[in-house]
Amino acid sequence: NFFEFYVVKIFLKGDFFMSDNLVISPENVNLPKMNAFQRVISAVFSPGKLMSDLEQKPRVLLGIILSVINPAIVMLGAYPMFKEYLKTTLEMSNANTGTELAPEALDSLVNLFSILTPISGAAMGVVFMLIQALILWLVLKIFKGQGSFKQILSVLGYSQVINFLSAIVFILTTYLTGTYSDFGYNSLAAVLPDLRGNFIFGMAKSIDVFDIWYYVCAAIGVATVSKIDKKKVYLVLIIMFLALAAYSGYSELRAAALLK
Predict the structure, then answer these.
(1) Is the pLDDT of residue 44 over 50?
(2) 243, 251 in Cβ contact below 8 A?
(3) pTM
């Protein structure tokens, strides 16, 4: 019959072993598509599976939404304590500069900053993720890696699921302690309170369980879409992590100087 004739023809011509069309590469294998819920769950429990899915079809909407929500939710989710934190900070700043404000004026400033700060945090969250994705994409091109800007943005976006978990934990600990803080209790800064105002303390704020988890998840995704050596990917992300930690240390010094 026709099928037997075609099989014999392939073997006689050697096409079965030699034809490039019959070589199956991992890139050409279509994995089962994941729905939105499965992708979110996989970001926590199976990042490798998630990143393979995003490699085939990158999605950026959720990442953009989370980059807006995550910075704002840590403030709005514990709003009463956040306002009290703002008030205390403004009082300390005014006392150190010798500025006196009437209680009504202070309350007005607190109300204003309690609105502007979450808005600016949300805006900066999106900008930061876009800049981070652009830097990674350019660096990967230097290493002759694959991957589009959209794929990198998608990887970072879904890694934001880890940051969302961090925000939830931060809100819960804030309500349990009754005190709002500028760092998480799961960071190294929590065990170095005597170093507040120090460069090391600022860096310690960034050495957080969830931050490390985020970068590991992102590294898995970047390695998946770029097809370059994993060691190079981890090196790039470690450098990026340390650079941000150093900036956090510098910011801590500046904040301490303003409160002196």
Answers:
(1) yes
(2) no
(3) 0.83
